[in-house]
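User: I'm curious whether this sequence folds into something compact or stays loose and floppy. Could you predict its structure so I can see for myself?
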Amino acid sequence: MQFNSIDFAIFLPIVYFLYWLVFNKSLRLQNLFLLFCSYFFYAWWDWRFLFLIIGITVVDFFTARQIYKSDSIKTQRFFLWISIIFNLGFLFFFKYYNFFVENFVAGFSLLGIEFNVSTLNILLPLGLSFYVFQSLSYVFDVYLGKIEPTRNIIVYASFLSFFPKLVMGPIEKPGNILPQFSNERKFDYGKTIDGLRQILWGLFKKIVIADNCAVYVNDIFSNYNHYSGSTLFVGALLYAFQIYCDFSGYSDIAIGTARLFSFDLMRNFAYPYFSRNISEFWRRWHISLTQWLTNYIFPPIQMKYRTLGVMGNIIAIISTFLIVGLWHGANWTFIVWGLLNGLYLVFFMLINKDSHPIETILYNRFLPSIKELIQITGTFLITIFAWIFFRSGSIHSAFEYFSKMFSKSLFSLPEVTAPKIFLLISIMIVIEWLQRDKQHGMEFSNLKFPVFVKWAFYYAVIFLIIYFGVSTPKTGFIYVLF
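Assistant: Here's the prediction. I'll summarize afterward.
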């Protein structure tokens, strides 16, 4: 069941009204109801993988309890490794087994050694990378003494499987979301209205922008040998907006949906394409993953190589971003994409440029200076180049794409102009620029517009969603594959 489906449009109102009208008498009933609905939501795709998420829930609930109860470091580490091996074992098998087998066989064949190891026809469980990282963060935080484990397995199961964030995040900090399942929740009209607005904005970005971009992107990347360099640049540009609107649109829907049930999920995107450098970009793009890696992966690597000084930081950055790439999928294109972003960050670190805090993105001025505009444009361009590896089916096709794009035909008129989609993208950019100090594009809490202006805007957005939802081929969310 995806957020842009008719199934979800029926499912959500039913769950919402039952939650507040029938199960509002007790916190335990609300949690049990949410747990049932979350399992139903997940089972709609494939009920067999419910056993996987239930297994991870049970193992990590009890390992966290054992870590907390034990005074022995040795015992704590034993149960920590049980959790790590259990979670990463499933992740490796379902997501990376075939990738490593194929590369193992290919590597030895280059040396003249043949192995007869066959791959498996494995179906990747929906959202596995997200809820494995979510569950591991809980165990890690208990081990590090940041939180106390819950004694209520229903609370933990509800936290891990909560359907708005289950499939594509955000990868929540346990200290933020877990207490919300233990505290009384009351209906909040303001949260409901703001949640609906954010859902609407997410649907606009997904259905109106991302799905329209996909029509051109799929054609250009599939037939790059037949297009000019300028057209290939247009394809890469449109893919940058497709993946942003697709993933941030999902996050908006997830956060807005959670708010309907009086939950506050963390922000996952903070207008990343307005970033003035690559460091700022990675503090605005997929924020929950960046923070997860910053909390659990980067520090131990940096600590291990701390005696190497700057070189130790370089190793930590590159290693972390190789993991970022591999987390996205079992393909060398993702690994190269991660490596490229790591190299961007290393270069940025070596030239000793000051990084802008995430809170100060020109809030006090309407337009950026020439210098800031150049910085924003430059950062956007290097992210576009990296996205070409992310979108390509293989390293070979990515380099061919680059080779064809950076040819004399780069300066010709593109065969694909797509004026309609660029108009829609421009509208979105203007709205998000005007709302860059807000959580999402339709947060009007502090804006003193006349009521009729707000409602005219709502109806315009709804009309565009319905119009393009009917007229444009519907695509699944990109990050569902990861």
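Summary: The CA atoms of residues 337 and 386 lie 6 Å apart. The radius of gyration is 23 Å.
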